[in-house]
Specification:
Distance between the termini: 29 Å
Number of helices: 17
Helix content: 25-40%
Shape: globular
Radius of gyration: 26 Å
Low-confidence stretches: none
CATH class of one domain: Mainly Beta
Largest sheet: 9 strands, antiparallel
Number of strands: 32
Length: 681
């Protein structure tokens, strides 16, 4: 018999019995997400302002651009000021300093930005208050992808069921109560857009427009206009009355007969309303059942409280990444829950969000966003050319345009550069066909061409990285940074893999690629530990021992072809056990899975488990499964932690190429079973 997936999911479906501002539940489909409070809707968004996870409705297409000035729509990117950094041979331009264009620099960072499409909440009387909700029990049914919210409203029972259409940007609602027909309905309220975390501003009613373009029993439609951006909203169901609400840009839908069923659809163009409640709700259930019945699964049969907690984190991370990280664009670090960095996505984090999908034998969920790299390839080529390099240089912080946002850090990062090669390799391994090779050939070749041109031959006969660069541990000065260990290993791995790609197609790879891969600089070390970068003898002092301990990723995330296992073990223990790193307060959510992967490759399963469950401020997993980043108000959740956890868990079960051992990352006493997981490289 196989693993009882449905039973395990039932045991770990999360519940709420009160308004927990850190545990709102979300339903979604990868391209659309709806986050709700205890009522199953977004009835009390003000409760979730401040340090909390806010209640938003967001879609992949939902971007807004604010005018640059009253008489000027935009700031032209050609007017950016570029700063020259010396790379040892010449000066290379980067957009890192605002200088005399501070206003334009700030505008480019904030625009376009994602925004809240609208709040869909309960409507009852003049104004509902949280105190009217009692006897609450809310459950996110993981296996069906549905939220069931039971409570009493002024003493009368109410049941709200909430889910999302599997392929449309539509939230599906069913309300059952004797109050339906006696004033209980659904409110749609549309705010002005904002680049802030909650994506909304409610006190700027005159800056945007809401026009009702259809109003009849069972169907209503609205046009939303914000500056030059617009979108459409439709509601279909068994409501028999629509009326304007008590506040601007608010509408209320009312029904009768004790049951109100609605499908509220958001879209970037005029579309028909979604189908009626029953078929849409059923399609959602079938979608989630298929998701859970196929692909990878892990069942932890022992391990005590630690085993149960890790099982909870794994299951909820599978749910959250399917909702938040499986869309047509690389995700923002908070996905479609709320705005982080104005809703823009960071391409170095795409690996942590989504690279796990192929290991869990769901490669299609990563493949959905690969078109984006092909779409922005011309811009990536142009950026490389402007800086004097061949190939394509991928941006760091960006949006659908692919333009690199100005930053004092982002444009100087390089560790996102090999990522498209890694994704292509993952997808080829799951589907090793000529079609896959041809589909991603151009991405692989252009990525490798930049990498080869970027590496510089030194007097020692080896190829070096930098200056100027900022490594994945972002607290180093670009002008002096050279040869961070993870980036060195990634460059070698990426160029070898790119050469192999062409060889599989019967084509000859440039000899320079393999020459560089074989002769990358050796990762710097001192005192039997790897350093953050060349000549950084202060790596393990308070000057540098915080942020990502990314040198451990050279053997963990990657196979570590140039890594000495003993030196790496010393490095790992210095970070995780010996107090030489500010791991309790100075790390991020994905650092712990990274440490776990390194421990697993070193044959230290107890240390791998300890890393995954390390009790640090940024390694907390909330009741709803989100990885909380301490009390950072602007970043209440951190999906790279969830995706990294799934990458590490898959590796700890299925191992890596040449591993030859089952569940190498778990102690034998844990009795871990798994299905349909692929090994890492």
């Amino acid at each position: 018999m196989g693993i009882d997936r449905k039973g395990i999911l039932g045991n770990f479906s999360p519940e709420n019995t009160s308004f927990d501002v850190w545990s709102p539940f979300t339903v979604g489909n990868g391209d659309f997400a709806f986050t709700c409070d205890l009522t199953g809707l977004q009835t009390f968004p003000a409760l979730y302002d401040g340090p909390a996870i806010p209640l938003l409705t967001q879609a992949q297409w939902g971007w807004h651009t604010a005018p640059y000035a009253q008489d000027c729509e935009s700031f032209e990117r050609s007017d950016q000021k570029w700063t020259l950094y010396h790379n040892g041979e010449r000066f290379v331009p980067y957009c890192t300093l605002a200088r005399d264009t501070a206003k334009g620099y700030d505008w480019l960072r904030k625009n376009p930005h994602r925004f809240n499409l609208g709040h869909v909440g309960l409507s009852y009387g003049e104004r509902l208050a949280p105190e009217q909700i009692a006897n609450a029990h809310q459950r996110l049914d993981l296996y069906r992808g549905r939220i069931e919210s039971r409570f009493t409203l002024d003493g009368t029972p109410v049941l709200v069921e909430t889910c999302v259409h599997p392929t449309q940007d539509a939230v599906v609602i069913r309300i059952q109560s004797a109050l339906v027909g006696s004033g209980l309905g659904v409110s749609l309220r549309f705010p002005a857009p904002s680049f802030e975390k909650n994506g909304a501003v409610y006190d700027l009613e005159d800056t945007h427009q809401t026009v009702c373009i259809e109003n009849g029993p069972g169907c209503a439609k609205w046009l939303r206009q914000m500056d030059r951006d617009r979108y459409f909203v439709s509601a279909s169901g068994n409501f028999d009355k629509m009326q304007t609400g008590n506040r601007p840009h608010e509408y209320c839908l009312l029904g009768a007969g004790g049951v109100l069923e609605l499908v509220v659809r958001f879209s970037d163009s005029v579309r028909d309303a979604a189908a009626s409640y029953v078929p849409v709700a059923q399609a959602s259930v079938e979608h989630w059942q298929a998701y859970w019945d196929n692909g990878g699964f892990i069942a932890i049969g022992a391990g005590g409280a630690e085993g149960r907690e890790l099982q909870r984190r794994i299951l909820l991370s599978q749910y959250l990444t399917a909702v938040q990280c499986a869309g047509i664009y690389p995700p923002a670090e908070t996905g479609l829950t709320c705005n982080s960095w104005y809703g823009k996505f960071h391409l170095e984090m795409h690996w942590w969000h989504s690279a796990h999908f192929p290991l869990w034998q769901r490669p299609q969920l990563l493949a959905r966003s690969m078109w984006y790299y092909q779409a922005i390839l011309p811009g990536a080529r142009a950026l490389a050319k402007r800086q004097g390099y061949a190939g394509a240089r991928w941006p760091k912080m960006t949006d659908p345009s692919g333009d690199d946002s100005p930053s004092n850090i982002g444009p100087l990062l390089i560790w996102q550069q090999p990522h498209p090669i890694y994704y292509a390799w993952l997808l080829y391994r799951e589907n090793p066909t000529e079609e896959t090779l041809e589909t991603y050939r151009e991405l692989v070749v252009e990525t490798a061409a930049f990498m080869a041109d970027y590496a510089a031959l030194g007097d020692d006969g080896r190829y070096h990285l930098g200056p100027a660069l900022i490594p994945s541990q972002e607290n180093h000065e670009p002008a002096v940074t050279m040869d961070p260990p993870f980036e060195l290993e990634y460059w070698s791995w990426g160029l070898k893999t790119a050469a192999g790609w062409l060889e599989r197609m019967g084509q000859e790879a440039p000899e320079k690629w393999l020459e560089i891969a074989r002769n990358m600089a050796l990762p710097p070390q001192a005192d039997g530990r790897y350093l953050a970068r060349a000549n950084c003898l202060q790596t393990y002092t308070p000057r540098f021992n915080y942020d990502h301990p990314s040198m451990v990723g050279a053997l963990g995330i990657l196979p570590g072809s140039q890594i000495d296992p003993k030196i790496m073990e010393n490095t790992l223990r210095a970070v995780l056990e010996q107090g030489l790193w500010q791991i309790d307060t100075g790390t991020w959510g994905w650092d712990f899975p990274m440490l776990a992967m390194t421990a697993a490759r070193l044959g230290l399963p107890d240390l791998a488990v300890r890393a995954l469950l390390y009790p640090a401020q940024k390694n907390v997993y909330l009741n709803n499964g989100h990885n909380k980043q301490a009390d950072r108000a602007s970043l209440p959740l951190y999906l790279p932690g969830n995706g990294g956890l799934l990458m590490a868990a898959a590796m700890m079960c299925a191992g890596w190429d040449g591993c030859g051992k089952k569940t190498p990352g778990f102690p034998e006493r844990w009795k871990v079973e798994f299905e349909n997981l692929s090994p890492m490289r």
